[in-house]
Design goal:
By secondary structure, the protein is an alpha+beta fold. The chain is 37% helix and 17% strand. The chain has three domains: 1-51, no CATH class; 77-106; 114-184. The protein is built from five helices and eight strands.
Length: 185
């Protein structure tokens, strides 16, 4: 039979959910946070006036590896926090660089439907001309996705579509000197 830690003459019917010691009904209180259970007055911070003070207990000697395990866990937690912080910063900086390096005048391709591809291709090529930017084959190929084809010619770049009726144009001729754009329907 277990007896109460404070009242050795009484039977201990309760075990403290925090320290695991045995107590009588007078020495514990029921708690619902963080989970329901009984907690002794010592662990809950309540000390009844009539309760005898427990005898001081000597600290248990630590094992040699115990403090190093806590230190390793602390270092690991700190390392994870720093890694998460660095990853977040890289993402934020990357999004900022992408947002501000992309020309403000460049529209977005809405879908791969022929009308959207044609509108996107024509609007970007026209915007390049208005901004006095000489388009490169790589730029034109990026903004005019397949099945629209772009190829370099001695005087510039020619963009062709597989079906003039569906795309709204059959050819875009971009000449470099001077920069001119001609659309053939």
């Amino acid at each position: 039979m277990n007896t109460c830690l404070h009242h050795t003459e009484l039977k201990a019917d309760y075990v403290c959910a925090v320290c695991g010691k045995y107590f009588c009904e007078e020495c514990v209180g029921e708690r619902f946070y963080p989970r329901p259970g009984y907690i002794c007055h010592q662990c809950s911070g309540e000390k009844p006036a009539d309760a005898p003070q427990p005898l001081p207990q000597h600290p248990k000697p630590e094992k040699a590896g115990a403090s190093s395990a806590a230190t390793k866990q602390s270092v690991l937690t700190t390392s994870i926090e720093w890694a998460v912080t660095v990853v977040c910063l890289v993402i934020i900086v990357g999004l900022g660089v992408y947002r501000y390096t992309r020309p403000a005048w460049e529209p977005e391709l809405l879908s791969n439907e022929p009308e959207d591809v044609a509108t996107y291709c024509l609007s970007v090529v026209n915007a390049m001309e208005e901004e006095d930017q000489v388009p490169t084959l790589a730029n034109v190929t990026r903004v005019c996705p397949p099945p629209v084809a772009a190829e370099k010619t001695p005087s510039g770049i020619v963009v062709t579509t597989p079906d003039a009726f569906v795309y709204g144009f059959s050819e875009i001729e971009i000449e470099f000197d001077p920069l001119t754009i001609t659309v053939a329907e």
